[in-house]
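Example 235, ligand NAP.
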Amino acid sequence: MSNVVVLITGANRGIGLELAKQYLISGFKVIATFRDKSGAAELISLTSQFSKTLQIESLDIASHEQIEALANKLSHEDIKIDLIVNNAGYLDRENISVKAINYAHAEMSLKVNSLGPLYLTHCFLSLMNKEGLSKIAIVSSDMGSLSLQQSVAWYGYRMSKAAVNMLAVNLSSELADDNIAVVAIHPGWVKTDMGGTDANYDVKESAAGIMKVITNLTINNSGDFYDFNGNALPF
Ligand SMILES: NC(=O)c1ccc[n+]([C@@H]2O[C@H](COP(=O)([O-])OP(=O)(O)OC[C@H]3O[C@@H](n4cnc5c(N)ncnc54)[C@H](OP(=O)(O)O)[C@@H]3O)[C@@H](O)[C@H]2O)c1
């Protein structure tokens, strides 16, 4: 069993759940967050198999109060975190034309996909393990790449992923002296509720690739953007 502690947001389904499973199987200690118990049956069921290494916590990443409360709770438990995986994501599917924008859904994209990881980092910095390199991974999307932008769709989502890519770059500069490396990762087009059944990859392939990218993250390549196969992507 490893002593490495990984915190994963949105770990009750999709890529986040698979990351939690693969990190647990690899012997890591996992703090897996979910929003609502009714949608977290599979994650909850893992607590009996991994009773010593899986801790589940509720967190709505759009709520700054909940982020603060979880940071306080883990601080009181004296937990040190080696890796944060900002995985939770929201897609405002209907915002495909500026002529018909649902403001609340665009706002939710920014709250969940960009401001959540920003504020989580702010509140959890003091919990990061200071002994050796610690890491922050941001599950972003190639849809947040300004250079790769090819079609008009999902205004809030694309804007929020571009913003969170900027967060990765900013954090990598500011946190290098704290020995914290940061990476933005495109997980591929993955068969999840968000990606749909036509997607190219299953969650197992995507999660395994994401973990490899995180393993290969050092201070030297901090601030880079990769796909789950380890190919560098342009911002
Ligand atoms: N699938 C793809 O093809 C694809 C492509 C590029 C990037 N991504 C990115 O990969 C990440 C994971 O996506 P996925 O495909 O696994 O999506 P998913 O199956 O739809 O899962 C989304 C996860 O995010 C959580 N979440 C949503 N809003 C939240 C909030 N306010 N607070 C906390 N958790 C929240 C969901 O929790 P609930 O169950 O409570 O809703 C769920 O656990 C996302 O950041 C996504 O943008 C996915």
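Summary: The pocket of NAP is lined by residues 9-10, 12-16, 35-36, 39, 59-62, 87-90, 112, 139, 141, 186-187, 189-190, 192-195, 199 (CB under 6 Å).
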